Amino acid sequence: MRPVHTQVPAPYDLGTPMLRVPAGALVDLDLRIESAHEGVLVSGTASADLVGECSRCLDEIHDDVEVELRELFYYPDRADEIDEEDEDVLVVVDDHVDLAPVVRDALVLDLPLSPLCDPDCAGLCVDCGERLDEVGPDHTHDSADPRWAALSVLTEAGTAGGAAARETKEKD
To answer: What pLDDT, on the 0 to 100 scale, is given for residue 84?
Structure first.
């Protein structure tokens, strides 16, 4: 068994479109590498700082993530014995293991698809784009439903016609 504590730079695509580890930022690895009959067992944690945007208001988010890792890398001769259709078999190559796909999968799968700056974030006003948390609950806009726009023209014409009819009636 060998403990490994190291930091590695993050690749440019470590995350989702809304929340990610910045390219070049350091990912902390606190691992334990053990020899097993079938291969090498790597277990431990990976942690990193995150940046992104709130999915409701688009404000910048800063967070961190820590995920558990546990993966068995098979020795080449043992990997041949495993079903050839299984593409997820990780193999020890020249006494080295490639942790990049393991760390990427664990980190990205742990990230929320719709991150929020605050669980109670109200988002943006659909009419003016202002943050609803800043403008308050009484924020409204007087906007007519476009489906009823043709009726408002008839109503205005009817009001004008009705006023003219009343004037004619009053003269009589």
So the answer is: 60
